[in-house]
Specification:
This protein has eleven helices and twelve strands. It is α/β, with parallel strands linked by helices and about 425 residues long. Bound molecules: pyridoxal-5'-phosphate (PLP).
Length: about 425
């Protein structure tokens, strides 16, 4: 490490201390809720065993779902290794809740890129909601990146069935939505239209705050197990949590009408899912500290960052940095890759990834393939060349990643 980089990181870290204390308080509260839920549901070794075949009476699976529901303050939850990703979890919810002729309203602008083809935003792509006869429209966020309640209410149609709220920034230069903002909006919608399902894309949001959307008026939320709640240990999967009535309908789409949630075996067993959830509040804390340090460091270097290092309203684990030029962005991603414990020798390059509209560069050397709760950086290659960093199982690894990225920028004469 050059003297300059060492001094820079030291200065960046020194001003994070009060923010880290806040993050520790959040971890404390979330961990207490997780631990007491394990105890309440009498989690025991036999819940870790796998099943085969149909998976009737799979008590490990069922208990895991009860624990998740309680941790999220939800009536019910589906937590399954058969849900292949966050996009799949979200798509199951939409196809379970919406019927042809009904309307879906996105309340936080255009949803995350992989939802484009699920909804049929770019056209009536095969198998999309639009091809299936579901009407779609969206309301943009206000200039301060909060939900525009008045416009949302006036965009509701008689056939509106689901209002979709994406909590995280995704690949957008905007703030993540606070739980308070989601809460007041959900209340305003329910006050005039109690039958509407307020559904939150909770990817990257779990355990970032002390409350989850389902504790704040959302009817359903969903996310990935290879992000926050998997704690870095869950090998695959997704979850859906919310009101029992909604979960029952969604369960019919999860497997097949009639058999719903009663089936689904997993021979490898559930230990990693339980243990991952147990670790998740701490892992999220480490990822948040990494995000704050990244913001602090690049802010000192003069790059625009979102959120600012001292932002009080963080609601996801993502840190965006605006590089302005593609070569800076790509050099940054190469640094994150080079600092990885796995595949450190690989060199990330932009590629046309399925589900995304632009070439995407992804830097991740992870134990669980593609797990973005592990330190990773990715970006669609489009102006103004914003890089998104997220994850880190430990703060020290996050710091090593930033340090290596700075070294590569320095070597290339870009610092
Ligand atoms: C990651 C993500 C998704 C999609 O999840 P995958 O697991 O990548 O399919 C959806 N929405 C948001 C906000 C995300 O961050």
């Amino acid at each position: 490490m050059s003297k300059n980089i060492g001094a820079l990181l030291h200065e960046a870290e020194a001003r994070c201390a009060p923010l880290f204390a806040d993050l520790d308080r959040i971890e404390d509260e979330n961990f207490s809720r997780v631990l007491s839920s394990f105890q309440h549901h009498r989690v025991a070794t036999h819940h870790f065993s796998g099943t085969t075949g149909y998976g009737y009476n799979d008590i490990g699976r069922d208990t895991l779902e009860h624990v998740f529901a309680e941790v999220f303050g939800a009536e019910d939850a589906l937590v399954r290794p058969q849900i292949v990703s966050g996009t799949h979890a979200l798509a199951i919810c939409l196809f379970g809740l919406l019927k042809p002729g009904e309307h879906l309203l996105s309340a936080a602008g255009k949803p995350y890129d992989t939802l484009d083809e699920v909804i049929g935003i770019a056209g009536d792509s095969e198998g999309s909601l639009r091809a299936f006869g579901v009407d779609y429209s969206e309301v943009n966020l206000l200039a301060d990146h909060t939900l525009d309640a008045a416009s949302i209410l006036s965009a509701l149609k008689p056939n509106t069935r689901v209002v979709w709220i994406q909590r995280s920034r995704g690949y957008a230069w905007r703030a993540s939505l606070t739980i308070e903002n989601i809460e007041t909006t959900a209340k305003a919608i329910h006050a005039i239209r109690p039958e509407i399902v307020v559904m939150v894309d909770n990817c990257y949001g779990e355990f970032v705050n002390t409350r989850e959307p389902t504790m704040a008026g959302a009817d359903v939320m969903a996310g990935s197990l290879i992000k926050n709640v998997g704690g870095g240990l869950a090998p695959t999967g997704g979850y859906i949590a919310g009101r029992q009535k909604c979960i029952e309908r969604i369960a019919q789409r999860l497997t097949s009408p009639g058999i719903g949630r009663e089936v689904g075996s997993y021979a490898q067993g559930y230990q990693t899912f339980f243990q991952g959830l147990f670790l998740a509040p701490h892992v999220v804390n480490q990822a948040m500290k990494t995000a704050v340090l990244t913001a602090s460091t690049f802010d000192l270097l003069g790059y625009p960052v979102q959120p600012t290092f001292d932002a009080a309203n963080r609601s996801d684990i993502i840190q965006a940095i605006e590089f302005g030029k593609p070569e800076w962005l790509i050099a940054f991603c190469k640094g994150i890759q080079a600092a990885s414990p796995v595949d450190s020798f690989a060199i990330p390059e932009p590629w046309d990834m399925p589900g995304y509209q632009y070439p995407v560069i992804m830097a991740a050397g992870t134990f669980v393939a593609g797990a973005s709760i592990e330190l990773s950086a990715d970006a669609p290659i489009r102006p103004p060349f914003v890089g998104y960093l997220q994850g880190s199982l430990t703060y020290l690894h996050g710091k090593a990643g930033i340090c290596t990225a700075l070294k590569i920028l320095e070597e290339q004469g870009l610092l």
